[in-house]
Amino acid sequence: MNIGVVFAGGVGKRMKTNGTPKQFLKINGVPIIIHTLKIFENAENIDSIVVSCVATHIDLLKGLVKEYNIHKVKEVVEGGKTGQESIINGLIAAKKIGNGENDIVLIHDGVRPIIDEGLINRNIIDVKKYGTSISCAQQRETTVLSETGETIDLITDRKTTYVARAPQAFYLKDILEAENLSIANNDYECIDSCSVMRKYGKYKNPHITICENSNLKITTPEDYFIAEALINNICKI
Predict the structure, then answer these.
(1) For the whole model, what pTM was predicted?
(2) CA distances to 36, 179, 187, 196, 201 from 183, in Å
(3) 128, 163, 196, 217: most buried, per Cβ within 10 A?
(4) What single DSSP character describes residue 15?
(5) CA 168 from chain center: how many Å?
(6) CA 99 – CA 1 distance, rounded (Å)
(7) 185/187 Cα distance (integer angstroms)
(8) Are 172 and 97 in contact (CB under 8 A)?
(9) Residues 57 and 49: beta-carbon distance below 8 Å
(10) How does pLDDT run across 52-62, given as a tens digit for each residue?
(11) Domains of the chain (ranges, CATH numbers)
C-alpha cells in the first residue's frame, strides 16, 4: 500500500495570519491544504491518505475533506508540538491502516501544494529501487555556509548542491524504526524525515529524486503570492 502522510500541524506564525493556520488560507477560494490533498487524491498510485492536523482545526479539516470529496483520507490525527511529532503521529496512523512489510509512505507538507502525479510516481519507484526517495531541487544560486552569519566560511558548488523538499518517501517500517530511535533518544528536533533517516535509520545516504524548483513550501506572505501565481498558471484543482 502507498500512503500519503500529510502533516498540517503548524500554526503559521511567520505568515502573520491573526490566528488562522496557514494551511487553511485560501488560494482561488480553496484552502491550501485541499490543493495539496487533491493531488494525492487524484494520484492513481496513492491508496490512502493520513493527515496530521493542528488540534483546534481537526473538525474543520474533516468538514473540508467531505466537502471536496477527498475519499482517500482515512485518518485525521492530532499534530504535535513540532513538525517531527506531527509526522510521527501520522506514521503511527499509517501503520494502523497499512498492509504490512511493503507499505510505502510519502511524507509531505500540507502547505506544499505545487507537485504533480509524476513526482509522486517517481518517489514510489525510487523507494522500491533504492529504499528511500527524497525530492530535491538543484540549487540555482550561489550557496554559502557561515558559522557566525557575518562571514562566509564556504561557497558550495551549485552542481553538487541541492535543496531537500517533499515528498520524502520510505518504506513505512524503516522510517518508523528510525523515528522510534529518535524518540528513545528524546530527539524531536530533526528538521525533516530525511534528517531522521540519516541520523537514526538504515539509509545514511538517502536517494535523491529530482523535483522542480516550483515545489515550494508556503511559509511567508511572499511564498503565498508566488504559490498563488504558480497555481493560477500551471495547476488545476
Answers:
(1) 0.93
(2) 28, 6, 6, 10, 13
(3) 196
(4) G
(5) 7
(6) 6
(7) 5
(8) no
(9) no
(10) 999 999 999 99
(11) 2-136+163-234 (3.90.550.10)
